[in-house]
């Protein structure tokens, strides 16, 4: 599977929303969860959307169909969308042919089980893996697709926005190529400008109730993504010593979700 620098870039984006948060009519708040209890907390806290993963401590992996079905049973009555991560293994996002085939099969199974959309990404070195992303999109025609933070590994996330649009992904989750969305705010703003309404830019990484309003104002994003989580109970030291865990699991917190949703709706 070959990969090359972006070749599908589009024309320069027209000027779009400035950093004035008063121009943001609606901000969608997405909470990433890895279990049914997390989904319950996200829904109760007022989240608009759930990103469902397994193993958040590894950055998120493909969830099981049984977990998806249980979360959908909670989310559907509340009108909350559930978008499922497709990541067949931990580590980087350079997939070989077998791994890509597995990712496609996982995605098709998740959509068949009722997922509202899929979250996927692939890159090699400093470039998006256009071939893999195109194959995944072709295999999921008609499915709403988000490109995840693999875009934060590329040399120029702003230029990559045009590639993502051409590949038919409707949304990009990004920290602007930085460790946190706050640190990458200037790049996120430029990504929003480049997208010019043709795809959504969602700010993620380190998004909290105490910084989300300022982040929206600085970037113009109308989607934000966070875990709204707290450390869970201490883990038995033997469990860590034997390599079964790296520390306490983080647990989605209803109050943290509610605070994030409230703060995201308040212009600064």
Automatic annotation (TrEMBL):
Keywords of the record: Cytoplasm
Pfam name, any one: CutC
Main location: cytoplasm
Compartment(s) of residence: Cytoplasm
InterPro entries, sorted: CutC-like, CutC-like_dom_sf
Matches recorded under Gene3D superfamilies: Copper homeostasis (CutC) domain
Superkingdom per UniProt: Bacteria
Family: Belongs to the CutC family.
Name this protein carries in UniProt: PF03932 family protein CutC
This protein's encoding gene: cutC
């Amino acid at each position: 599977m070959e990969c090359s620098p972006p070749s599908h870039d589009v024309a320069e984006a027209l000027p779009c929303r400035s950093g004035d948060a008063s121009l943001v009519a609606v901000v969608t708040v997405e909470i990433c969860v890895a279990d049914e209890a997390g989904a319950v907390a996200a829904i109760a806290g007022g989240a608009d959307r759930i990103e469902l993963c397994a193993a958040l401590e590894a950055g998120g992996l493909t969830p099981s169909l049984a977990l998806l079905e249980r979360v959908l049973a909670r989310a559907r009555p509340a009108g909350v969308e559930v978008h499922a991560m497709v990541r067949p293994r931990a580590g980087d996002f350079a997939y070989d042919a077998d791994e890509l085939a597995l990712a496609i099969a996982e995605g098709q199974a998740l959509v068949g089980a009722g997922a509202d959309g899929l979250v996927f990404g692939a890159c090699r070195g400093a470039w998006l893996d256009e071939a893999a992303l195109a194959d995944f999109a072709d295999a999921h025609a008609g499915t709403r697709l988000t490109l995840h933070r693999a875009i934060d590994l590329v040399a120029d996330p702003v230029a990559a926005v045009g590639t993502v649009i051409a590949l038919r992904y409707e949304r990009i989750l990004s920290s602007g190529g930085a460790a946190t969305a706050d640190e990458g705010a200037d790049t996120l703003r430029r990504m929003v400008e480049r997208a010019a309404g043709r795809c959504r830019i969602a700010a993620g990484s380190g998004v909290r109730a105490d910084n989300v309003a300022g982040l929206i104002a600085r970037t113009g994003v109308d989607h934000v993504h966070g875990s709204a989580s707290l450390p869970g109970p201490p883990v038995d030291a033997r469990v860590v010593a034997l390599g079964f865990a790296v520390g306490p699991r983080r647990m989605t917190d209803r109050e943290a979700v509610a605070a994030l949703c409230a703060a995201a709706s308040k212009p600064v």
